[in-house]
């Protein structure tokens, strides 16, 4: 049995909509009722105010007519016209508690599986082989992972795709260099205690040396180019070297994914090399459809609103990044059955995606009913708001960043609870630091740049992962205490009249599904991150004014409060999990 529980907010909106359909001329009936949370009531509907002029009516009159129709609903305690024509709507305690009881009993907290018709192909992370993952890959990795979790929870079939950069002329250069310098030991490099070193770190350095030699030495350049051809032709020795490099890199990526606790596994890798055999077919199809033009020997596609054409095949016959991504679209639709293709990639690739989407539409690979989106992410800056660089001016390694967060989290946690054993401290600091980094990322709108400020991230106060995790542990501890005292598990009792802080908390709990819907619609995990912060704040306010286990609390009030605690804990834990953040029992 899958029980899906609608939120009362959704019903309020539906009720105002229905009233609008009755009192407004048909052409206005489907306008947005503009239902929002409000300080003066639970919800405020502003449609009367925004539409009155256009329908030739006075806003207060119009609001009054809507009120008369809406006010009958059982779930509402009061509906009033206020100010110039707002509709203030307050939910009945009993209706709210009823809804919460259904949520608490339903699988998945009763959230409707609204995305069940969707096959979402989510392309995220996409690090490059023979290079270390750096801070630039963090955003795509975490945002993509949260989207995969949320859409999956809402019933979508999710296919994760890690489009690793494992193909291209740079590998000819690196392999040639390694062949010419057999003593350049990179394989046996151990990762040091400080997290530096390791085979990929060594390869990254060798790659830079090879690039210098390539630029400086025309003969090496020629040998490197011949090596590219050998790789493409499938020359055994060359391919074996390439495979080894790819294997080492993927092992290193996997280490970071495991440390971060993201869902990506080796099975999700579908790198650039995978598409290589299909590129000629992509070009042929584009040519057959009359989309390809010749430009100084290169094959390009001209697009209406793009200042430059898209390069599909270079004059030397080589294919570029665009051809590969066209192939990803064709594959995602034809082979994976995707109807929502989501590319979580740096905003600086916006033009690239605009061009491949447009081309794919024209080629018929993206047909009606299939959505392709570039879920663009901004840049992470350093704490000073400037581009994030190491002291020596290099790119910041992801592993170093996580180490830094771990160190700071450990200090903060140790200070808060000096009695922790070293093992407990290790574990809590790990959970807190990863949660801190993820929450800082996921509470920011994805297209915005933000500053990586570890001190702010690991704070127990303010909008941080640590605050949310800590709130979760506090509730867990209340529930443990209740169990010890034999106070029972709690039960929602619709006959109990709620204090304002209880009512406010109940309202938040009812909106969990709506927050997830928001993420699915906008592909912005920060809507969930903001919701969870609001929920934690509402819980904190509730717990300050409403004692739960104190002796003078009447039994049915206590049971109701315990049920509120339990559902808050479950909602926080589920919400954090959907952001990929662990919800610890102690902290
Ligand atoms: N490897 C690329 C980079 O580091 C990201 C790949 C993104 N995915 C894609 N289908 N283009 O910039």
Compact summary:
A motif ('HIGH' region) lies at residues 127-137. Residues 468-587 form the DALR anticodon binding domain. This protein has 587 residues and is an alpha/beta fold.
Structural class: alpha/beta
- CATH third-tier fold name of the domain at 465-578: Isoleucyl-tRNA Synthetase, Domain 1
Content of β-strand: 5-15%
CATH architecture of the domain at 465-578: Orthogonal Bundle
Output mean pLDDT.
93
Give me the Rg, rounded: 28 Å
List cofactors, ions and other ligands. arginine
Protein name: Arginine--tRNA ligase
Pfam families: Arg_tRNA_synt_N (PF03485), DALR_1 (PF05746), tRNA-synt_1d (PF00750)
Main location: cytoplasm
Subunit structure: Monomer.
Annotation keywords:
587 residues; alpha/beta; Gyrase A, domain 2; Isoleucyl-tRNA Synthetase, Domain 1; 4-stranded parallel sheet; binds arginine; nucleotide-binding; EC 6.1.1.19; tRNAsynth_Ia_anticodon-bd; aminoacyl-trna synthetase
What does this structure look like?
- It catalyses: tRNA(Arg) + L-arginine + ATP = L-arginyl-tRNA(Arg) + AMP + diphosphate.
- Residues 468-587 form the DALR anticodon binding domain.
- It is found in: Cytoplasm.
- By secondary structure, this protein is of the alpha/beta class.
- Among the domains are: 8-91, Gyrase A, domain 2, CATH 3.30.1360.70; 168-261, no CATH class; 465-578, Isoleucyl-tRNA Synthetase, Domain 1, CATH 1.10.730.
- It is 53% helix and 9% strand.
- The strands form four sheets. Strands 1-2-4-3 form a four-stranded antiparallel sheet.
- β8 (298-301) and β9 (310-313) form a beta hairpin.
- The chain is globular.
């Amino acid at each position: 049995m899958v029980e899906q529980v609608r939120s009362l907010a959704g019903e309020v909106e539906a009720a105002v909509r229905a009233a609008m359909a009755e009192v407004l001329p048909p052409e206005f009936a489907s306008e947005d009722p503009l239902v929002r949370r409000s300080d003066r009531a639970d919800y405020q509907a502003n449609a009367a105010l925004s539409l009155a002029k256009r329908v030739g009516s006075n806003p207060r009159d119009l609001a009054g007519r809507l009120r008369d129709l809406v006010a009958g609903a059982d779930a509402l305690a009061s509906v009033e016209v206020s100010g110039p024509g707002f509709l203030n709507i307050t939910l009945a305690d009993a209706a709210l508690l009823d809804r919460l009881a259904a949520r608490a009993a339903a699988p998945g907290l009763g959230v409707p599986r609204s995305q069940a018709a969707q096959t979402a192909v989510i392309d995220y992370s996409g690090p490059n082989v023979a290079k270390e993952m750096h801070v630039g890959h963090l955003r795509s990795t975490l945002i993509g992972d949260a989207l995969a979790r949320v859409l999956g929870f809402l019933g979508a079939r999710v296919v994760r795709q890690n489009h690793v950069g494992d193909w291209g002329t740079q590998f000819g250069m690196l392999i040639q260099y390694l062949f010419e310098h057999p003593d350049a030991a990179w394989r046996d490099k151990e990762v040091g205690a400080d997290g530096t070193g390791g085979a990929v770190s060594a390869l990254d350095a060798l790659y830079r040396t090879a690039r210098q030699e390539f630029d400086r030495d025309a003969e090496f350049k020629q040998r490197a180019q011949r090596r590219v051809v050998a790789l493409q032709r499938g020359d055994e020795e060359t391919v074996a070297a390439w495979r080894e490099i790819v294997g080492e890199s993927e092992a290193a990526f996997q280490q970071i994914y495991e440390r971060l606790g993201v869902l990506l596994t080796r099975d999700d890798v579908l790198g650039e090399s995978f598409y290589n055999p299909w590129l000629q077919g992509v070009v042929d199809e584009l040519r057959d459809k009359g989309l390809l033009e010749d430009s100084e020997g290169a094959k390009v596609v001209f697009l209406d609103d793009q200042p430059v054409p898209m390069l599909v095949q270079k004059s030397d016959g080589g294919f570029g990044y665009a051809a590969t991504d066209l192939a990803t679209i064709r594959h995602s639709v034809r082979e994976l059955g995707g109807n929502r293709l989501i590319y979580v990639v740096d905003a600086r690739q916006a033009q690239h995606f605009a061009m491949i989407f447009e081309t794919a539409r024209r080629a018929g690979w993206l047909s009606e009913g299939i959505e392709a989106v570039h879920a663009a992410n901004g840049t992470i800056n350093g704490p000073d708001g400037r581009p994030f660089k190491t002291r020596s001016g290099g790119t910041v390694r992801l592993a170093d960043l996580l180490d830094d967060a771990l160190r700071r989290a450990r200090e903060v946690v140790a200070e808060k609870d000096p009695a922790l054993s070293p093992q407990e401290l290790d574990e809590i600091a790990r959970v807190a630091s990863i949660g801190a980094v993820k929450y800082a990322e996921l509470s920011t709108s994805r297209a915005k740049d933000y500053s990586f400020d570890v001190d702010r991230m690991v704070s127990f106060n303010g909008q941080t992962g640590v605050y949310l995790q800590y709130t979760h542990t506090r509730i867990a501890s209340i529930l443990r205490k209740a169990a010890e005292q034999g106070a029972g598990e709690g039960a929602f009792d619709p006959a109990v009249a709620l204090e304002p802080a209880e009512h406010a908390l109940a309202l938040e709990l009812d909106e969990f599904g709506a927050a997830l819907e928001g993420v699915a619609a906008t592909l912005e995990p920060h809507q969930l991150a903001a919701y969870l912060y609001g929920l934690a704040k509402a819980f904190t306010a509730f717990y300050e004014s409403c004692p739960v286990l104190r002796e003078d609390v009447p039994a049915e009030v206590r049971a109701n409060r315990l049920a509120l605690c339990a559902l808050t804990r479950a909602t926080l834990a589920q919400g954090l999990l959907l952001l990929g953040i662990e919800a610890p029992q102690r902290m």
